[in-house]
Here is the input.
Amino acid sequence: MKKNWKHISLAIGVAFSLTLAGCGSSNEDTTSDGADENGQDSAEETAAVGEALNYTITGIDAGAGVMAAAQNAIEEYELDEYELQASSDAAMTSALNEAISNEEAIVVTGWNPHWKFSKYDLKYLDDPKGVFGDAENIHTMARLGLEEDMPEAYQVLDNFHWTEDDMGEIMVAINEGQDPEEAAAEWVENNPDKVAEWTDGVDSVDGETIVLALVAWDSEIASTNMIAKVLEGIGYNVEISPMEGGYMWAAIANGEADAMVAAWLPATHGAYFEDYQDDVIDLGTNLEGAKIGLVVPAYMDIDSIEDLKE
Here is the structure.
């Protein structure tokens, strides 16, 4: 089912100045904008980018597709001194918040839809080698046999399609402290016309249980809780089961879970889709224009992944 970056800021300028100060001398052949007499950037300035970042790219869980793409970027762009630091979505956004609060340099694995783009002024680093691929779509996947076993749920899931702005409303509310279920319920209540499109002609059920799997990214927490509320509205008892990406796909393929609305294709979950495509049903795109890449605060004066090189 169905994720680019650059710029270095005042923090890098400060780090560069301190580097020169620590040497006890200035470069008389360097112009005021950091270029030498031939107009080329000095080696010290170039090195300052990696040093300011501590040669670290802050990532999320190790199994995520964006992490595999980021590791490929390190190799393709010959960022040999860089380490891709695995953590979690929450840890990554916490590190991003701390860096921005102090106007420090940071580069993170990123994707949208994500609430961080609403809260912070961020940018993707250009990816001239195309390591992170083009825009992606988020797909809905169902287990084999769901259409026969739960035709009402299958129809709703097949009809489901919304926008990044729709998802963003729920993500921002959650980030601001609202419980995911409450934020999803509020969105459903405020968007009856869209919900009606998904449930048009669908009969009610009497308490059947359906299990929805998700990878616990903010985007998928928003979408899964929302569609759970829609299914509850026609009588389902919905169980939400968060898990890592590989387990999510396996759960749909082996029938431990009934469906997910969290498949990023063609790149992020492409390897999983290749492994399980014969054992799942692709109900198509539920959100278009998703993207992955390397992201930095807009105040950083770099624009491309290539700028991360020494």
About this structure: Residues 1-46 have pLDDT under 50 and may be disordered. Strands lie at 56-58, 83-85, 108-112, 122-124, 136-143, 209-214, 237-242, 259-265, 280-297. The first helix runs from residue 10 to 23. The radius of gyration is 22 Å.
